[in-house]
Amino acid sequence: MAHKATFFNCERWGDEAKSYLEGSAKLKVADVTVEFVDDILSKDKIPAPGSAAANFDIAGVFMDSPVDAAVIAALPELKFIATLSTGFDHIDLSAAAARGIPVSSVPAYGENTVAEFAFALILALSRKIIKANARVRVEGKFTTDGLCGFDLAGKTIGVIGTGRIGKHAIRMAKGFGMNIVAYDVYHDDAFAKEIGFTYLSLEDLLKQSDIITIHAPYLPSTHHLINMDNVRLIKRGAILINTARGAIVETKAVVEALKDGTLAGAGLDVLEEEVAMKAGDMSLDANLIQLPNVIVTPHDAFNTHEAFIRILDTTIDNIVAFVNGAPTNVVKAPAAEAK
Ligand code: NAD
Q1: Burial level of 202, CB count in 10 A (0-12/13-18/19+)?
Q2: Is residue 168 among the annotated active site residues?
Q3: Nearest CA to ligand 1 atom 11
Q4: Which of 36, 58, 273, 313 pairs as cysteine with 5 (C-beta 3.0–4.6 A)?
Q5: Taking the C-alpha atoms of 51, 105, 114 and 302 in order, what is their torsion angle to the nearest 10 degrees?
Q6: Which has the closest alpha carbon to 12: 48, 61, 57?
Q7: 11: CA distance to ligand 1 center in Å?
Q8: In degrees rounded to 5, what are phi and psi of residue 239?
């Protein structure tokens, strides 16, 4: 039986992603034709009847497509949703289940990718790379005044969350000759022994770390994990890196800590208000992003060529598994907890 998979908002990765999917031998063998829409899928943006992208039975979406009950109701042919992300809280799983539509996600694709980005932020701050670049290119001066940084070797890094990404960050920190401490609700003692690091309470980690890097999921239990109460425990002059989720850190607490020197800098790939910022409202979190010792990136840590190829490969496999009657990486639980 022939299938049509329509992918929404794929253009973020340029034409390469489209050619990769169009050229997939696995999809061809499974008799899946591929169409693209350079926009999200939402209730106001259902492909027009009769257009090439309409009447698809397989939808390929990112986190930016709100596949709610109205969207599902408007797509009577829809039989499978493949989200090209780990998170799936943009999809109404109950509405999909009520129609017997399985939803598959990409459980893992960028452990090293995100950890590498965390170190990019760490090094950019420790060696004042942004300022040094501006010195030459913007100020037109080839001088090093005020650019003295600090070594990572011998410093203490506190890793919050020692799962897939956190473990990569720990291995990288080991390579830099850093002392490592960690906080997690679950302790991987064998890994701690292998690498030679210690689990601490969150309070002790904040007190001891020169660099704090967050790799925990966003859950009710991690909402404002770093907040107005415990931010004062942070070792004076430390650097905070967040590549996990914005709301794990209370924005106001970071702003205060940066202003009073508790934090010497922050590298933030995620912000509490990033959804509104993506929609164009840059006024939110403005107090934070305008501070001079802050580097902010637009939720970009996952964004490498290798990671997107891994995402596409898993998505292709998810689609083929569905076509073969045995869907894989199916998301079953409602996304009430993780985001
Ligand atoms: P993971 O599930 O492998 O590891 C998460 C770790 O956090 C686990 O060890 C878990 O025990 C720990 N944890 C859970 N609750 C905790 C708590 N209350 N306090 C401390 N630790 C706790 O996840 P991962 O693959 O390493 O990803 C971590 C997070 O990184 C993701 O949840 C996601 O939010 C974020 N992420 C960001 C990007 C990006 O582009 N910026 C990309 C991918 C993932």
Answers
A1: middle
A2: no
A3: 186
A4: 58
A5: 0
A6: 61
A7: 27
A8: -120, 140
Alpha-carbon span 207 to 1, nearest angstrom: 61
Is 187 marked active-site? no
Mutational pocket test of ligand 1: of 112, 185, 248, the residue with most ligand atoms within 8 Å of the beta carbon: 185
Please choose from 85, 111, 184, 248 the residue to mutate so as to test ligand 1's pocket, defined by most ligand atoms within 8 A of CB: 184
State the catalytic residue, choosing from 35, 168, 245, 272. 245
Q: What is the 3-state secondary structure (H, E, C) of 110-161?
A: CHHHHHHHHHHHHHHHHCCHHHHHHHHHCCCCCCCCCCCCCCCCCCEEEEEC
Q: CA torsion angle for 181, 245, 61, 304 (degrees, to 10)? A: -50
Strand, helix or coil for residue 30: coil
Confidence class of residue 284 from pLDDT cuts 50, 70 and 90? low
Local confidence band at 336 (pLDDT 50, 70, 90 cut-offs): very low
> How far apart (Å, rounded) are the C-alpha atoms in residues 155 and 219?
29
User: Which pTM does this prediction carry?
Assistant: 0.87
Chain segment 71-89, per-residue pLDDT in tens: 999 999 999 999 998 878 8
Q: Report, as an integer, the average pLDDT of 3-21.
A: 89
Residue showing tokens 């939803």: 103
Q: Which domains does the chain have, with CATH numbers?
A: 3-108+305-337 (3.40.50.720), 111-296 (3.40.50.720)
